[in-house]
Structures are given as structure tokens and as C-alpha cells.
Design goal:
The protein has 125 residues and is an alpha+beta fold. The chain has one domain. 54% of the residues lie in helices and 20% in strands. The chain is built from 3 helices and 3 strands; from the N terminus they run H-E-H-E-E-H. A hairpin with a 2-residue loop joins strand 2 and strand 3. Helix 1 runs antiparallel to helix 3.
Length: 125
């Protein structure tokens, strides 16, 4: 690849880096975990879940905190908020993985640019 092509590629990679920066600079909280719906008994003896076996549907969030898995039952109004938080975490991690790959490509292109620039002066002593 020539110097001009490498410069174009470098500019393109930097623009991708700027797009990733938007993900990292977001103010959205992150939760390393997942949201799921399950059925359970509520614990009340007078409830239909205890008498008839019709279980209640509840949403739960399972998250990792300080190396331990924690599960919490969510109120119906909390479900969409926590879905956003877990989605944001996955988006953040995906962007981080792309950043690692992008950095390798950036270094390779910068090295190629250096190599091409050094060739220009090779004949001068």
C-alpha cells in the first residue's frame, strides 16, 4: 500500500475510533447481567398460587457484583429501565472488543506510514 492509501486508511480508522468514543462517553449506567421472566409462588397461604398452583409471573435481574452473582425481583415499572442498563453493558463490551482490534489496525497503518516515509529519504545521505 502506498503512503496516500495508508493516510486515507488512518483517517477512516480514526473516524471509527471517534464513533466508539460516543459509546464510552455515554452517561447510561451499565449492569453486567441479564433480565428474565419467571414464575414463582408469592408465599401467601391465601393466594391462588398456593391453593391452585397458578404461579405469578415476575421479572428478575441477575447481575455480577464484586465477583458474586446477585438476583433481584423487579417491579413492573423497573423492567424497561433495567433492560436498557443490561443492553448498554453489552454495547459497551462490544465496543471495547472492537477498540482492541481497531488499535491493532491503527498501529499497523502507522507503522506502514513510517516505513513509506523512511523510504523517501533512503537515497539521501
Amino acid at each position: 500500500m502506498n503512503l496516500s492509501q495508508n493516510r486515507k486508511k488512518l483517517k477512516f480508522l480514526i473516524s471509527r475510533l471517534e464513533n466508539l468514543a460516543e459509546v464510552f462517553c455515554s452517561r447510561q449506567p451499565l449492569i453486567k447481567g441479564s433480565i428474565y421472566k419467571t414464575k414463582t409462588k408469592c408465599g401467601s397461604d391465601n393466594c391462588r398460587c398456593a391453593r391452585e398452583g397458578q404461579l405469578h409471573e415476575v421479572w428478575r435481574v441477575t447481575r455480577s457484583h464484586q465477583g458474586k452473582t446477585q438476583t433481584r425481583t423487579l417491579k413492573p415499572q423497573e423492567v424497561s429501565k433495567y433492560k436498557k442498563y443490561t443492553r448498554s453493558y453489552r454495547s459497551h463490551r462490544k465496543a471495547r472488543a472492537e477498540l482492541v482490534k481497531l488499535n491493532k489496525k491503527l498501529l499497523k497503518v502507522v507503522d506502514e506510514i513510517e516505513k513509506e516515509k523512511r523510504k523517501i529519504l533512503k537515497g539521501i545521505k
